[in-house]
Amino acid sequence: MKRTMMLAAGLIFAAGAALADPVLGTWKTEVDDGAYAHIKMSTCGSSICGVIHKAFDASGPIASENVGKKLVWDMNAKGSGSYNGGKIWQPSTGKIYKSKMSLSGNSLKVSGCVGPICKKQTWSRVN
């Protein structure tokens, strides 16, 4: 009985790992206003969110008041590496954009719009 329960627990754990969203992990943003960041993407309830994990400038890691703040939230997986319905915050301007993302291997195309103004970046996977 104990062996059966351990086997069942192992199968449940393996199934959960197999269902992990491929966008989860840490991503490096492009440079914006002289700085870039590592964003840790994780699940937040039924959606995906991203928190600023580390900040950098041309000389290396920097202390930033933005570390620990959400940069991406309410992002919904739509299949085939497509995500939408989310929001993204641009720290250099303080603006919040309606956002979508597209995953292809180790590249994540992130775009967002406020009215007619749209911006986009391609992030690279750190891990």
Q: Got a strand count?
A: 9
Separation of the first and last Cα atoms: 39 Å
From the 3D structure, determine the CATH topology: Lipocalin
Shape: globular
Name of the CATH class: Mainly Beta
* Residue-averaged pLDDT: 87
Helix content: 10-25%
Biggest sheet features: 8 strands, antiparallel, barrel
Proportion in β-strands? over 45%
Strand order of the largest sheet: 1-2-3-5-6-7-8-9
In the CATH hierarchy, the architecture is Beta Barrel
Radius of gyration: 17 Å
Order of SSEs: HEEEEEEEEE
Residue stretches low in confidence (pLDDT < 50, at least 5 long) are 4-18
- Structural class comes to mainly beta
Number of domains: 1
- DSSP helical segment count: 1
SSE blueprint:
Layout: H1 2-18, E1 25-28, E2 35-44, E3 47-57, E4 60-62, E5 70-79, E6 82-90, E7 95-104, E8 107-114, E9 117-125
Antiparallel strand pairs: 1-2, 1-9, 2-3, 3-4, 3-5, 5-6, 6-7, 7-8, 8-9
Tags for this model:
127 residues; Lipocalin; globular; 13% helix
Written overview of the protein:
The protein has one helix at 2-18; strands spanning 25-28, 35-44, 47-57, 60-62, 70-79, 82-90, 95-104, 107-114, 117-125. The protein is mostly beta strands and 127 residues long. The chain has one domain (22-125): Lipocalin (Beta Barrel), CATH 2.40.128. It has an eight-stranded antiparallel barrel with strand order 1-2-3-5-6-7-8-9. It is globular, with a radius of gyration of 17 Å. Mean pLDDT is 87; it is low at 4-18.
